[in-house]
Design a protein that fits this description.
265 residues
């Protein structure tokens, strides 16, 4: 008889998760730890990253946290080095950290462009490069990058955000080919609208307006064929599959858990 749980266990493995202070990153860190991995949580929100690690420890898992600005190569390298120093290895790299953006194309500034590219794209590239340097000599590993359903749907005001996430998807597909010979699998997930504090980018000062956010989420719910919005855990469970033995032949793909969301506003 096939022991299905064994296909989803990560016992003895080490994982790095960026953006682990909240949202999809936090859920991913918790799920991977629950599957047996030792998790190093990175986030520019150091307090939030520490809180995620402390909760994992309280739940009986293994975790550490480190402040990480993913737009800085040295920070990402240091995060991966922390995993190797603490665990002696790196098996899983989840590049989740990112920021949102909502402006018409004519309002995109040079500063906006540089910031989005630095965090949403450069940070993912740095994460992949840092992980590959460690994984390649061992001839094994799994990398998951976070893209977005925006790559499929022409949402108003999402051009710059969608551009960065489209680049992440293409990067992941190319690396899926380049790294395969070294036993390393690289995939991207493209989440649909997922309620997290990621939405703060739409509001002045980053403070969410509950009433406006409820209206926005209702619009998102209405364009979901399933009639409801997913949660961060839905994405985290997909990531677990992609880094687990169950997905040993899956690489270079873009995976979508979005409730069938495929239409613009």
């Amino acid at each position: 008889m096939v022991e299905l749980p064994d296909y989803f266990r990560l016992d003895g493995q080490a994982a790095v998760v960026t953006g682990g202070a909240s949202g999809i990153g936090q859920a991913t860190a918790q799920v991977l730890a629950g599957a047996g991995a030792a998790v190093v949580v990175g986030d520019i929100d150091e307090e939030g990253a520490q809180a995620t690690a402390k909760q994992i420890l309280a739940d009986g898992g293994r975790a550490a946290a480190q402040r990480t600005d993913t737009s800085r190569r040295q920070d990402v390298d240091a995060l991966v080095d922390r995993a190797v120093a603490d665990c002696g290895r790196l098996d899983v790299m989840c590049n989740v950290a990112g920021i949102g953006y909502a402006k018409p194309v004519v309002e995109i500034t040079d500063d906006d462009f540089d910031r989005l590219v630095s965090i949403n794209l450069r940070g993912v590239l740095y994460g992949c490069q840092a992980a590959l340097r460690v994984m390649t000599p061992r001839k094994s590993g799994a990398i998951v990058n976070v893209s977005s359903t925006a790559i499929d749907c022409p949402f108003p005001n999402q051009a710059l955000y969608g551009m960065t996430k489209s680049a992440v998807a293409y990067l992941s597909q190319v690396l899926g080919v380049e790294a395969a010979a070294d036993g390393i699998r690289v995939n991207a997930i493209a989440p649909g609208s997922t309620p997290t504090n990621f939405a703060s980018f739409r509001y002045p000062g980053g403070k969410i307006d509950p009433e406006q956010e409820a209206e926005f989420m209702e619009r998102m719910r209405q364009i979901s064929p399933m009639g409801f919005l997913g949660e961060a855990m839905d994405q985290a469970l997909l990531i677990l599959f992609l880094v687990s033995p169950a997905a040993r032949w899956a690489t270079g793909n873009i995976w979508r858990v979005n409730g069938g969301q495929s239409r613009p506003w």
